[in-house]
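Narrative of accomplishments. A recurring question from our advisory board has been how the design workflow behaves on a single, concrete structure rather than in aggregate. To address it, we present the structure tokens for one chain from the evaluation set, followed by the sequence designed for it. No filtering or post-editing was applied between the two.
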């Protein structure tokens, strides 16, 4: 029912707000998106909290104007000072509210990448749960390394429950090697981390799988970003009607607390800051250091 609603929900319209937004985590700035909504059906999706049933996909018909506004923004920036985002280039997230490699959106993604390479010296980035080396063209010459893909990963058994429609986790890990070979910088996006009763053993196994799969070339450039689960009462109620199995692990009132975010989401719930979240963060750091010591964490919260 949920995914059927997605298929009926596609529309195209003009985007009005074109100015990039400051970020400082996954990127220096968030580009005004060429799409909102998604063909995937992840149970924790923050975009779906504010949208119609099924989180319908909307693509915007004025991509040229969005890209021109992004170029003007980049041209006004000073020389980049090194930070955790990137030591040399200003980085723009081009896919905040969608998955850039889903079929309906990928053509817009490829147009955007081409524009960045031709018109700026900024680095585009996006996270994806869709695998496939051939989904992205090979980069040659000065373009190599000038786009960053963030492969979103979680334990495979959990992904099958909470990430409906996404590529299998082993395929996503294998895609890291393929994209690196094609000239992309590839980081690992552990988001969201869901603290199930078996999460420590599950992530240790995931890290072992990553270590066995990645090539030496991929390991030499990989970094991680880590975000623990944020959920929402409205999303919880909706999910109960279409994926109650996901809510059994996403909704954990005994360890979660309400919090107002910078997005104005109001009563989002996160793991309790004191006594829960701090221990989770330190445990994740230890697990990653034990199994992927070559993979530094860019940020974690």
């Amino acid at each position: 029912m949920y995914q059927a609603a997605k298929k009926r929900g596609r529309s195209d319209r003009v985007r009005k707000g074109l100015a990039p937004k400051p970020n400082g985590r996954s990127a220096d700035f968030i580009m005004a998106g060429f799409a909102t909504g998604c063909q995937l059906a992840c149970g924790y999706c923050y975009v779906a909290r504010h949208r119609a049933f099924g989180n319908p996909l909307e693509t915007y018909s004025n991509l040229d104007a969005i890209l021109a506004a992004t170029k003007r923004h980049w041209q006004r920036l000073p020389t980049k000072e090194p930070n955790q985002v990137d030591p040399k280039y200003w980085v723009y997230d081009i896919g905040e509210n969608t998955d850039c490699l889903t079929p309906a959106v990928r053509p817009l993604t490829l147009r955007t990448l081409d524009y960045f390479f031709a018109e700026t010296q900024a680095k585009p980035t996006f996270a994806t749960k869709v695998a496939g080396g051939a989904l992205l063209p090979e980069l040659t010459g000065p373009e190599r390394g000038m786009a960053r893909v963030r492969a979103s990963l979680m334990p495979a058994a959990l992904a099958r429950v909470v990430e409906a429609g996404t590529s299998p986790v082993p395929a996503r890990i294998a895609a890291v090697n393929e994209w690196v070979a094609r000239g992309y910088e590839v980081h690992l996006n552990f988001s969201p981390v869901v603290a199930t009763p078996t999460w420590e053993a599950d992530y240790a196994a995931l890290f072992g799988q990553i270590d066995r799969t990645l090539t030496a070339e991929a390991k030499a450039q990989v970094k991680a970003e880590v975000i623990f689960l944020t959920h929402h009462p409205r999303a919880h109620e909706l999910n109960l009607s279409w994926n109650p199995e996901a809510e059994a692990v996403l909704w954990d009132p005994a360890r979660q607390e309400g919090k107002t975010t910078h997005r104005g989401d109001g009563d989002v719930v996160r793991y309790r800051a004191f006594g829960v979240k701090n221990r989770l963060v330190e445990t994740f750091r230890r697990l990653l250091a034990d199994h992927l010591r070559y993979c530094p964490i860019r940020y974690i919260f």
